[in-house]
Amino acid sequence: MNSNLTLCATISDRITNTPQKRITFAEYMDTVLYHPEHGYYSSKAVNIGFKGGDFFTSASLGADFGELLAEQFVQMWEILGKPKPFSLVEMGAGQGLLALHILNYYQLNYPDFLTVLDYVIVEKSPELQQEQQQRLQNFSVRWCNLEEIPSNSITGCFFSNELVDALPVHQFILQAGELREIYVTSPFFVEKDENYLLLEGEFGEVIGETSTPHLKKYFDLINIDLSVNVYPDGYRSEINLAALDWLSIVADRLQRGYVVTVDYGYPAHRYYNPRRSQGTLQCYYQHRYHNNPYINIGRQDITAHIDFSALELWGEQCDLTKVGFTQQGLFLMALGLGERIASLSDQDIAIAQLLARRESLHKLIDPTGLGGFGVLVQSKGLPDHENYQPLKGLIVPK
Questions:
Q1: DSSP state letter for 173
Q2: CA pair distance 237, 280, nearest whole angstrom
Q3: CA separation, residue 96 to residues 48, 67, 133, 304 (Å)
Q4: What's the mean pLDDT in 323-332?
Q5: Which of 390, 282, 396 is nearest to 332 (CA)?
Q6: 212-215-221 Cα angle (round to 5)
Q7: Can you tell me the distance from the alpha carbon of 144 to that of 119, in angstroms, rounded to the nearest whole number?
Q8: Rounded to whole angstroms, how far apart are CA atoms 199 and 347?
Q9: Average pLDDT, the chain
Q10: How distant, in Å, are the alpha carbons of 26, 101, 240, 379 from that of 158?
Q11: What is the pLDDT of residues 233-274, one digit of tens each?
């Protein structure tokens, strides 16, 4: 088992010191990913990219994703009346590649816009923040926590790429039609009865009552009834309450502008399809994925698909209006990626380089991969949608 033993001991101590000798899976996931010293995202364990990485993102494929996003942000600035400053708040900036591509593009193509741009990065990981600061040292960028941004202070756009999928989730299971929660425990504290699910190394799972009434309220929000008999006994999935908390804070900080969320996920009726009976939790380790979060502790990424319906419906309760929802492939094509692909044949570059670039561009729009990611755009403080120009990225390509 390639786990961080210090982190395992920390989790064991936390379990030992709780009255019922168990913690929610959300608390476990938060600890293994975000512990300030030993968590996956807080240590040197995180590895993004193709060579020896655990996973790659759209920004890993080159500058195109960032440059096309940059075009969309300029149009947003124009729709808002060219405010000074215009704040771009990137939440969860990884290695800083996306920010670098966006800012380089503005420096070359929109130098006037760059003078009014307030680029803000919200990053929990000290390790990643240090890498970002090194990579972006030639640009004016500031770092802060989301909570540090004053209420109702941002005019511009909050955006994230593959952030929400890594927020800690609660896991649940249906027993006799009743919603029950899955907890993480130590094998020392549990008898192996029908409520004991899994043992892997130092940790196991046990079923209990729900830890918060918000879990049941979540399904009221998304209009899903788990009590109907189409759901099999033992049906298991996730609930991302942290995503709702995150969106509440973002909406509170935004005075006027947009929220753009790019990630992999489904609308609620597909997420909680009765046939998807084991949920969407995935772990990534050296470009291999599996569904066991109790190995490689602190050394692997853990993610779950996001429920876009929940973000949309909760956003409405936070004064966010849905502007549109589309797939990443369609979004990028509408912003000009098709023209970039077509222009490759006119470029005087080596055939190997041309083929590599073409492959990267096609990966961005592949509907079975990155191109199938969802892009949710929400707004706040804008006039009636009929009275202003539609966003380029949401216009369906003809």
A1: E
A2: 7
A3: 11, 14, 8, 23
A4: 97
A5: 396
A6: 135
A7: 11
A8: 56
A9: 91
A10: 25, 17, 20, 10
A11: 999 999 999 999 999 999 999 999 999 999 999 999 999 999
